[in-house]
Design a protein that fits this description.
2 copies of one chain form a homodimer.
Chain A lengths: L8 H11 L6 H12 L3 H17 L1 E2 L6 E2 L13 E8 L2 H10 L4 E5 L18 H8 L5 E4 L5 H14 L5 E4 L15 H9 L7
Parallel strand pairs in A: 3-4, 3-5, 5-6
Antiparallel strand pairs in A: 1-2
Chain lengths: 204, 204
């Protein structure tokens, strides 16, 4: 069944909008719109306003570039966070992932992507200048490069290393090794090789 | 990774709204919202307004109860359609499916569901009174019961039969049989049995 010939232009427009989202086909979009149609008008209005406010009212933190409801995000304005420790991540999903571990008490710097020549993303498309500025102005003792363990991540790490190496800071990366819960048998050889080379003293 | 601790309340609200849609989990909702955030503000505003207008501006046809941009839908107000032929369907998806066949020149009547005691849907929840009214007022020669071939569909068919039987109209249902393109080997026995009993003269 093809969904041509919608009985209503408004319906068709709404289906088109939902179908423009990644991973949502026209059939799914239609199902979502029909679900909205069955709801209370008040609920649907709230849904639409939420979407509109996304762009209108959302801020990007003027220090770390993470998403925020105010000029400066809650992490950067938290007095208890260690501002000498800056964790460089690709996007806000990564900030949330690290925050969820409750292990990190420093601040973040969100690049807004990684260097990827294939996708046409170069260093100038990322928030690298403001990172260097932060480091140059002093007050930063360690920059943790917490990017993906992909070729693009490694390229970006190397580029950042070259930009930041001249300043008097520690440059660190996340520990690589066998993930907790993983069976050795199914761990890829590169990860396992690194885990052997970077072995740690046994802790009870 | 659990998506607790959103850096922004606006973001969290939008994720919650998308996650309320059927088949959309929190991770997918987050991905959809992040996609919207990366777009032009104008595009996102249009998305939101489309959703809001869904309820505010959409009409239900005052004759067949299908979705419409005006008081009467384009099918019911089409002079070329045969108004003596009324096809009873569950919802507007079914109207669209039948319209896509380009085989039907009558009009529709959208029940808005089928009788389903399990889901608490009784005859009074459906647009059955207006159907009976139409038939009673005359001008209808045939009512086609085009409901799903499920237990609920059969129940609704039987209920409609009892309500409409007393009027001077033909009551018909869709032909049941082996679907075009189906292999006999994989056709269920009930469908195949009916197809044998209701066999038609061979047409070249």
């Amino acid at each position: 069944m093809s969904y041509s010939g919608y009985p209503s232009k408004l319906l068709e427009n709404a289906v088109n909008e939902f179908a423009s989202l990644p991973g949502i086909g026209r059939k799914t979009a239609f199902r979502l719109v029909m679900n909205l149609l069955k709801r209370d008008p008040e609920e649907v209005r709230r849904f639409g306003e939420c979407v509109i406010r996304l762009h209108g009212d959302i801020h990007y933190c003027n220090i770390c570039h993470s998403i925020s409801d105010s000029e400066t995000c809650s992490i950067c304005s938290d007095e208890k966070r260690d501002r000498t420790l800056v964790c460089v991540v690709e996007n806000i999903q990564d900030v949330m992932a690290i925050e969820n571990t409750r292990q990190y008490r420093g601040v973040y710097h969100v690049l807004g992507g990684i260097i990827s020549p294939v996708d046409g993303v170069g260093p100038s498309d990322l928030k690298i200048d403001t990172l260097e500025e932060k480091v140059k102005n002093g007050g930063v003792s360690e920059v943790i490069l917490a990017l993906s363990t992909t070729m693009e991540g490694d390229t970006t790490n190397f580029y950042l290393y070259r930009r930041l190496n001249k300043y008097n800071i520690f440059l660190t990366t996340l520990a690589r090794g066998v993930a907790i819960g993983d069976e050795l048998e199914y761990t890829d050889e590169i990860t396992l090789g690194r885990a052997i080379n970077n072995r740690n003293p046994y802790q009870q």
